[in-house]
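Today's session is about reading a structure prediction critically. Students often jump straight to the picture, but the first step is always the sequence itself: look for stretches that repeat, for charged clusters, for runs of hydrophobic residues. Only then move on to the predicted structure, which in these notes is written as discrete structure tokens rather than atom positions. Here is the chain we will use throughout the hour.
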Amino acid sequence: MSFTTTILQWFHENGRTLPWRETRDPYAIWLSEIILQQTRIDQGRPYWERFIGRWPTVAALAAASEDEVLREWQGLGYYSRARNLYAAAQQVVGQGGFPTTIEGLKALKGVGDYTAAAIGSIVFDLPAAVVDGNVYRVLSRYFGISTPINTTEGKKEFAALAQELLPKANSQKQIANYNQGMMDFGAIQCTPQHPSCDLCPLVETCVALREGRVDLLPVKERKLKVKERHLTYIYIRFKGETAIHRRPAGDIWQGLYEPWLAENVPSGARLLRQNVKHVLTHRVLYADFWLWEPQERPQLPEDYLWIKEEDIDDYGVPRLIEIMLNELNKRI
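Below is the predicted structure for this chain, in token form.
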């Protein structure tokens, strides 16, 4: 039995049951793919359900405000995805519907090769192979490929191999099933740690298993240097109000809100929590949280907005600020 046929059969018997797999609505599938970028299914599924419930069509999403979308996205991280989601919804509405070609899908904000291939194959039966972390892992292990997956050479090699392995015929949605089978096979069977090699249907022909290299593949070059950043946040409480401002473009958490980000702690402020560590992809943040209850309303930069304390839940905030607000509630 060929590699491709084995994956199709495995998916038929073991594929995950997911709500976005019960439809061919491009909006529902596109939404799931954007949410699941860099997010586990168990974490992303409730967000998909909330988005579908609140905005059941792409037109409804496009008619919302960016603030509303960011607030609904709160807690998922990588907020550029939410901004891209909102912008792409407006693109789709503006052009009268979802594109039906890979190039057209890639023209949508936030849609790259993988997402375009997933949507195109699942919704429109396009012969496009998906290549993500799961696919890299399965192919590198099965074929014993040691080319680093984060190099130009590696990306080209794996993309070509993935495309070559697509089912030649597309009867009964075989291309869509194969793509989803590769995703599920990597997530369930050929996992990063402790893969189920003894129960794997490819056990007899897997190069990595035969050569004892399962734990060594795939290969990834170390390139990114993680930077540290230190932040001091002051939560101001003055007559039932607090001050927040919206983070600007060109930095982390663009479009989300945060309390006063201060250079110096004002006299009379109380420490809520110190040196809170928060890990992002390319940097590690360390934050100190303070509570300040001044006798007079302080003068802050013009971009700060005074709101009622009970209204802060109406504003999208980063996960780090959620931690701060939870700490504040404990003290109160």
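Discussion point for the tutorial: The beta strands are 227-236, 241-246, 257-258, 260-261, 270-279, 283-292, 304-308.
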